[in-house]
Every structure is written in structure tokens, then in C-alpha cells.
Amino acid sequence: MRKTSKVVLVLLGLIILSAQAVMAFDLTSLLNEGMGRLEAKKGSQNLCLITNAPYVRFNGQSAVRCLDACSELTGCTLGSERLLFVQRPVDAPLVAALYDRSRQRLWALRWDGQQAQSRLWEVGDAALAQEATWQAMQKSPLGRDAFSLVSIARAWGGGAPYDLLKCAEFHDHLCPGVTSGYLLARFILQRYPLRPGQRYYYVGSPVWCKEDAVQVLLNLTPGKRGMIVRPLNQEQKEALPDKTLGGLFLRWDAKAQKGRALALSFDWQKARGLARLGKEKKRDDGVRLLLALLPVLDRPQELVSVWKESDLTPAQFQALMQTGVDPYKQMGFTDKP
Ligand SMILES: [Zn+2]
């Protein structure tokens, strides 16, 4: 290799290393401040770190590079289930939060690459019951990140299983809707396990947050054609014979060309009863409801049931897995004027 090429390579390497070091240094020094505010000790089992770092970029590089230094500082590692992520668009500001479950306090940081803003929040039941807490969080630089961080932190603190937290990571927050999807998927796995040659398919209709949990838990993604999402309009929703209908699971054997269709329902009334929610809507209803669902996650049959089921013919399977409208035709892009 020519001498000049070697010099260029060494310089490039130094630039990359220093960029990593700057990012790691900046975030770890900020997190160090958070550890101080929480009076947290490295490696404490009561501490977790939640961040969108794997998804966002700074100065042209993924912020994931700072995570090793953050784990080193806090003791929160992936393997300990105390390093959790929250999905965001690639151009979003970096967000990181440290949560101490023993005192239910959350230190949250938002960093846009130039300016860092951080604050300590009380996020226990009493604080979340106050409308003022939610208003303050919404008005703060955290904005909509606040609910993501608080919901994931409280669920983690309440003992949420890691696979539910993975659903929350993909959905970008944890809510009763995504938890209902987790329960629907767990119900199918427990009551209708696959036999050799079979595969699950899923038609999400009506659509709500549950679809994201089904994707993660069963690896049924639209890209792999395992999931079809079919929203219903208001009229169609009102025409549903049962308002608890939660989606259609298919168990299909492609070789034998036969299968089973299972329409499942989710009992929201019972779920609300578990959380003792009143008729009047309150800002902490979502967090209270998802925390109340945690103890029944291993018993999905308490809230999920089969509304109807039947054998599935090849013609029905094909019709279900094809979407209706051709979007390009709808826009007139493929029709001659
Ligand atoms: Zn949701």
C-alpha cells in the first residue's frame, strides 16, 4: 500500500474514533448527572435506562455507538433487561431516561445534538393521577416522548415480561392497546399451536395498537405477507355484531391447502374492571389499565375468547390475504386520462 493511502486510512480511523468518543463522552457525562439526581448506584437492580439511541443518527452516524459507554456508566445492560429502547424516526432528537423503580422517579434527557435539556420527574401513582403532571410533561421538551418513557418505565418497574417490552419498543410506547395484542397472540400460541406444515396469518381488523404486538410476538409482518391490516370506517365499526372483536387469526397449511380461521374477541369491560377504572376518563387511565393487565399476561383466556371459528377454504384464504383497492389506480396513476 502506498504511504499516502496509509496516512489517509489512519486519519480516517482517528476521525471515526474521535466522533465516537465525543458522542459517548457527551451522553455519558449527561447521564452521570442523571445518576446523581436520582442518587442511583451503578448496577442497581432498581435502575433501568430507556433510550431511542439505536434508531436515531447524529452527525451522520447512528447514536447506538454511545450505548456501551452508557451501560458501563449505569450498569444497565441488554442482558439484564435493564436497557430498553423506544423506536423513533431516524431524524428525531436523542432521548434517554433513567428510571428508579424503588422511588418511581424518572430522569429524562432530550438532546438535539446542540442543546441538552433534562429534568427529574415523579412518576408514581399519586403524581400520575394529577392532571398537572401530564400537562407539565407535555409542555416540557419531552413532549410526546414523555408518555413513551413513563409507560415503558412503569411497566418495566411493574415486572412486565421482556417480550412485552419488545412490543412496546416497536410500538414506541406501552399502552392497553398493545397489551391487548400481546394477549391475543399469547392466546393463539397457547390454544392453537401450529402443527407441522402450518403457518399463522393474521388479518388485523378493526385496527388498533394491538397489530404491532402481534407483529413482534408472532413475527407476522406485512412485508413477509404474514399480516394484512384492514381498517374499518365508522359505519362498518358500528355494524359489527360485537364491539369486542379483535382480529382474525388464520392457521394455514399451504401444502394441504386447508386451515382454520379464528375470530377472537377481547373483553375490554373486564379489563377496565381489573384496573377499577371509573366512567369518567382520566389522564392516568392508560397507565393504570396496562399495569392492571400485567398479572394476567400468562392467562390470556381471562380476557380473550374465540368469537367464531370455522374451516378455511383456499378461495377464502386467497380473498382474505389480498387487499381491496389498487392505490395507483385510485390515484389515476395507472389509468389513461
Ligand atoms: Zn398504543
The topology string of helices and strands comes to: HEEEHEEEEHHHHHEHEHEEHHEHH
Q: Please tally the β strands and state the result.
A: 12
The total of helices stands at: 13
Number of folding domains? 2
Bin the helical content: 40-55%
- What would the CATH topology of the largest domain be? 60s Ribosomal Protein L30, Chain: A
Quaternary state of this entry equals single chain
Largest sheet report:
5 strands, mixed
Spell out the blueprint of helices and strands.
Blueprint lengths: L2 H36 L8 E5 L5 E2 L2 E2 L4 H8 L8 E3 L8 E7 L4 E7 L4 E7 L2 H4 L2 H9 L5 H13 L4 H10 L4 H16 L6 E7 L5 H9 L8 E3 L4 H6 L5 E9 L4 E9 L1 H7 L10 H9 L10 E9 L1 H8 L5 H4 L7
Parallel strand pairs: 1-4, 8-9
Antiparallel strand pairs: 1-5, 2-3, 5-6, 6-7, 8-10, 10-11, 11-12
The structure holds zinc ion.
